[in-house]
Amino acid sequence: MFDFLLKRLENYLDVTQRNTARPVDAEMQRLASARRPAMARSVAQSHEPALQASKLHKAYNNVEVLGAVSLQIQPGEVVSVIGPSGSGKTTLIRLLNGLEQIDNGEIQINGNLYSPRPSGQQKPRFMENAEHRLNIGMVFQSFNLFPHLTVFGNLLLAPRYHHLASDAELRQHACELLHKVGMLEHAWKYPHQLSGGQQQRVAIARALMMRPQIMLFDEPTSALDPEKVNEVLQVIESLAHEGITMVIVTHEMNFAFKVSDRIVFMEKGRVVCDDTPQAMRSGQHPRVEAFLKDVSLA
């Protein structure tokens, strides 16, 4: 009897065994469509770039992955980072978000420097400045949703932890964002009940819950089936039209050339070219032209 009850308890606690979800009620539908004042966090006004990286260097086991990479992103700008596999694109975006420590160089957000360690310590580190960290949102290749939480729970976890607003405001904001990315009807489902495209749209909404000033996308469609790619790209494109500052690492060339203000081409851990889509198309950069020779740009 004890073993039977224990097995029943394990099955109950295992969220991956749950294949049903309660429907979205009328209150959530109302919250999704209600008009309310913006719940934005205050960001100090500055004439500085939103994000600036200077001479970033990163090596793993004495193998250089990034060498003297510099990048400047203005507020509201959309920059796509392209290049062959192994060129350091993902490493760059992980350094920008503080997921990896830089070996040399510096990163500034709104003119605020992430400081190196005191003299005598070799590697620099990021300052523990919560306000600056909260200004950056990240969307990963593999979604990284919390499997034990519902879609709604995934969105509410971080802003509740940081006391971003009242619970009522957060719930309304979550409903709005889920409606925006077309996922409100799935609010009470768990990640395992969603397709890859649906999970990535939830991941985008989750990142937006923190009202970030800058959004980083690390190949957001690389783990998706081809038929699911477009639904995610449409969401990202709508964000670009809203003026959100974005850095997008992608292999979707037509998408990059369509939505970007600038395109950065990387190879062997270095920035080979940083120019507008129009200049890239015109054949001014031979290496980029060779990279795109088999791509039919719309």
TrEMBL record:
GO cellular component: plasma membrane
Pfam families attached to this UniProt entry: ABC_tran
Segments forming a coiled coil: none
Domain called ABC transporter: residue spans: 51-293
SMART domains: AAA
UniProtKB keywords: Amino-acid transport, ATP-binding, Cell membrane, Membrane, Nucleotide-binding, Transport
GO molecular function: ABC-type amino acid transporter activity; ATP binding; ATP hydrolysis activity
InterPro entries linked to this entry: AAA+_ATPase, ABC_ATPase_HisP-typ, ABC_transporter-like_ATP-bd, ABC_transporter-like_CS, MetN_ABC_transporter-like, P-loop_NTPase
Primary location class: membrane
Membrane topology: Peripheral membrane protein
Location relative to the cell: Cell inner membrane
Recorded family membership: Belongs to the ABC transporter superfamily.
Record PANTHER family: AMINO ACID IMPORT ATP-BINDING PROTEIN (PTHR43166), GLUTAMATE_ASPARTATE IMPORT ATP-BINDING PROTEIN GLTL (PTHR43166:SF9)
Protein name: Amino acid ABC transporter, permease/ATP-binding protein, His/Glu/Gln/Arg/opine family
